[in-house]
Amino acid sequence: MKHKFALLVLGASIAPNASSTAKVAADSTDTDSGVCQGADWQAKVAALKELAASLGLQSYVEESIASGKEGDCLVCDSKPVVDLLSDETAVLVAGSPSSAQLSSACDAIKASGRLALVVVDALADLATLMPTLRHLNEHAVQMVAQGAVKMIVTAPMLMVYRFPKADSTTTIAAFADIESDDPLVLAMVRGGNPYKGFESLPGGFLNVQLESLAECAARELMEECFVNDKAKGDEDRFTYRVAASDMVLIDERSRPNRDERGHVVDHGFAWFIPSGKQDEVMAAVNAGDDAKAGSARFVRVSTIKKAKLAFDHGDLLEAALLRLKTL
Known about the structure:
CATH topology of the largest domain: Nucleoside Triphosphate Pyrophosphohydrolase
Helix content: 25-40%
CATH superfamily of the largest domain: Nucleoside Triphosphate Pyrophosphohydrolase
């Protein structure tokens, strides 16, 4: 059954100049779990409100617990808000609640038989709320990221797990001229969000139940950097075939907020291209999939380090270079 959705914004009002198009701000608070509280939580709440309005979702905003205002400004710490919701409604919770307000709101939603989804990066004072969020997570309250909300509310059906699953990705640092003090690395420009227009290393999401991480790394590398534009079938879809056995596992990066689309665990691989294959590989490079057309190419490491790489790909690059020095 397809769920309906409502948005519940707890706490003080959101600044009127908070823009949903604001870039992710520098982190202002680290939690002991590794989650970072960015300075842009208000912009993310504003984006949620805009999304709710555009999709016709029910939306309730509590301006102030102390104000006693009624109408569309609800005291959302008990049963009144859920009484306004239709059946089969999942409630997205965001804003600037205290721990007690957040717990009370989620308890009321759950008691009504409805699903509570807390938009973690659209909460103020995340470090203070972490004990409450851990407790709620252990009691079947779903944790989501603002960047994933549109996909969730427009999906044909809502998938709910006892413990939400993290997505897995692979990213690949492919090196040529590996004997040089300044080797070449395969880079591309991202053609879509997040980080559209940023320099990036190739990579992408694991096809669950279909491949290993090493197989994912090889496939993503080929899909983004070795695409045959004249392919007639699967057998000739790539200009160069990279083997999973060529992939060398380097690191993992798993900070909960490293990807705005949700909790994405990235596994970093390297491909150290033997000198005997280098010319063939370099001649076969052709951008595809998520890469901007024509952007895949080998770049000197000293040059790519001057650019701001997407996500935390710079960390993988440094780790892979250290491994290269041990070969």
